[in-house]
């Protein structure tokens, strides 16, 4: 099921209006459970959570996306790759990690198609999530841009590309059949 | 370290419990556990509390439940190990009693997941991996995480959707005899195959439901246990381990490393031969949040060789009378999976099985006198394996 964000907001708004009418007429925000009809108190408070997440120490990764590049970090001491990139190497206790551009070539390890979506993803059509083993030896998990998921096969060659995610318009990385 | 026994168990009905608050629901289990142990609230020295929350309104659920249950004043805390939180509560309570810090501890697990609409519950569970790198941009869902394992496993071992379905059929069969289970209806392989895809290749009937429920167990030191009961169920060993937050950092998607390591540790602590654990165990509760999870659990626990889990399922070897009886209460799949309650519920179920207090068809034959609970948090992010026995070490 796909539903635009506007449709979803309309639906919520209509429901809240119904609750408000019930509260006005009955004096209590109480509605029947949709399945059992047990009385439920509709919380009169609401939380709207949107996190502000620091990215300063891995900013190069996001700058890279703007240039169409995907970066990993690598510990020069142990030659360990980090993807998602991280600023610290807990193995050698170092923080002077190098930024290296990902080759972008890999093989598909596994994938799924998300048909039942989380609330904040309801506005997308069904999407494919894949994990690929990159030539460097580390894995990347992201969406797979593919017309027909039935054409995917574990082990097939894939490549990494940077694209905008719509409708939000932010830059992110996708796998594609190579 | 001292010996520790389960001396009281309680369990609420699992399902969509829309007529009770979180505290009322927890009390159902706490009351039973206290009565079963033959103790009162004043005997409880510590409440080890498990609840994941987010979907329910009380932000300090341990405090709310303890007040409602009449145990306000005791030492208490809340633990989080995702879907293994219940076992984390059990393990910490066990440590407190084993160390001599307390003589009697209560482990309580409760989850009220239906206080939010289903898409919001899907959202909150989906966030339980690596939020920033794997949820916020890519929208993994809980079935999605396990579907990644299912795709890899089925490809590697030529397992089929029918093999996966056979796990759901078995667990619904046993749930039909469990009055506390969410689903009382038996299903067929065809029912599973006809159900809609949730996260390909997993379908609705491959998945455990969004569930409300509670469970509680009373743990006692040997001296305290001897005074309370003739049939203490000893906790012989609890093994625990964890794995990476990002799924992408794992070498393969065929097995859960944390569960393997937790099992090895539990076997070592409890004197079980890891090459043939089923020879020393009558009944197991395994973490079947999805059908593929039960199949992988058979291998991670050593019941089947690598790649042999789906064969065990297909051949019905985990019904009573087979190689080892698994999930005779219906499992997470059909009993239900109220996240924070699940691990405690497993301990309660194994205790009742070993005491032979389960009625009829779903009572295991207790010959060796030992049972096992395998409880996984997230997608193998956390794992706990506990061994229970009628015999002390």
Walk me through what this model shows.
The complex is a heterodimer of chains A (178) and B (393). Chain A is an alpha+beta fold and 178 residues long. In chain A, 17% of the residues lie in helices and 33% in strands. Chain A has helices at residues 5-26, 59-66; strands at 30-32, 39-41, 71-75, 80-82, 98-101, 105-114, 127-134, 139-144, 157-165, 170-177. In chain A, the strands form 3 sheets. A 5-stranded mixed β-barrel of chain A has the order 6-7-8-10-9. A 3-stranded antiparallel β-sheet of chain A has the order 4-3-5. With 393 residues, chain B is an alpha/beta fold. Chain B has a domain at 4-117 and 210-228: Thiolase/Chalcone synthase (Peroxisomal Thiolase, Chain A, domain 1, 3-Layer(aba) Sandwich). Chain B contains 14 helices and 12 strands. In chain B, helix 3 crosses helix 14 and helix 7 (161-175) crosses helix 11. Chain B starts with a strand and ends with a strand. Chains A and B meet through strand 6, strand 7 and strand 8 of A and helix 4, helix 5, helix 6 and strand 5 of B. Strand 6 of chain A pairs antiparallel with strand 5 (197-200) of chain B.
